Amino acid sequence: MPKLLFCSSGETELLGHIIPVYAWACLAVTWMGVAEIAFGVLLLVARRGWVFWLNVLTLSGLLLFVALFEPGMFTLPFNPLTLNTALIALSIIAVMELKKLNSGV
Length: 105
What we know:
Order of helices and strands: HHHHH
Number of strands: 0
Low-confidence stretches: none
Mean pLDDT: 90
Radius of gyration: 16 Å
Structural class: mainly alpha
Number of domains: 2
Shape: globular
Distance between the termini: 38 Å
Largest sheet: none
């Protein structure tokens, strides 16, 4: 939600590697916030494994992006490695639970 109200300097810096104009990067961060909320709602109501695999793929891609362009972020207290790894694990657990639910076990 804060992304919708304020332009995040950290995310704007990251996007600066592919979007050189600051105002456009701020706009992109806002739209990313909207997309994250929509995808979060989809994750809550989804009963399909592909949604969670898409989450795993996206989080892995974001982790690679940070590793390539801002490796110093991995030294921060709430760094992308710990956060993304936890979210990837939760998505994989959700896929496993969906399989159990669909198989009737």
